[in-house]
Amino acid sequence: MQTYISILRGINVSGHNLIKMNALQEICGTLGFRNVRTYIQSGNIVFETKTTDMMTLEKTISDAILKFFGFDIPVLVLEKEALKNIEDHNVFINERHEDHTKLHVTFLSDIPEKLLTDGIPHEGYLPDEFYIRGKSVYLFCPNGYGNTKLSNTFFEKKLKVRATTRNWKTIVELIKMSDWTTLKNEINC
To answer: Which pTM value belongs to this model?
Structure first.
């Protein structure tokens, strides 16, 4: 079994696309996922499955949400190692030691074209800062994410990919949850 983290975009926001996390867990269980756990109401799922194709997992989860809830929700699936890699390469923490409460990561559905990433002027959004590494955009928003122009919609338009953002606390918690799932399985073997 492989541990994955699924991140949904656009649920439980301002009273729209309401999905209770216990219902989401139950649906994931019907998909054959094991040790399904959710974290906060924004749609973060840690689970295990034998399926190794992440695009298949994304479509399976998205189709199930559409079938059971009637919402067409973008779904991103990451291996737990990818999330740890994101944690290990955050220069806002590792090099600048910025306040963790001001840090976010925008997850992209694909690696954006270099021409598109180079076309975003960094100085035009100060004091907010960002850098793009692979399928991740690291954000430093000193005045809060709610006040930045560097939103999911901004990156989707500029980079021509789907995007969803999580704060740094959520990233750290999802890593802990995925480690716990792996540890639990090793103990039970």
So the answer is: 0.89
- Report the distance separating Cα 111 and Cα 159, nearest Å: 9
DSSP 10: S
Residue-wise pLDDT for 134-182, tens only, equals 999 999 999 999 999 999 999 999 999 999 999 999 999 999 999 875 4
CA distance 31 to 170: 24
Q: 5, 46 in Cβ contact below 8 A?
A: yes
Element (H, E) at 141: none
State whether 92 and 161 are in the same domain: yes
Q: Give the residue among 90, 88, 104 at the shortest CA–CA distance from 145.
A: 104
Tokens at 154, concatenated: 């901004």
Whether residue 51 sits in one domain with residue 8: yes
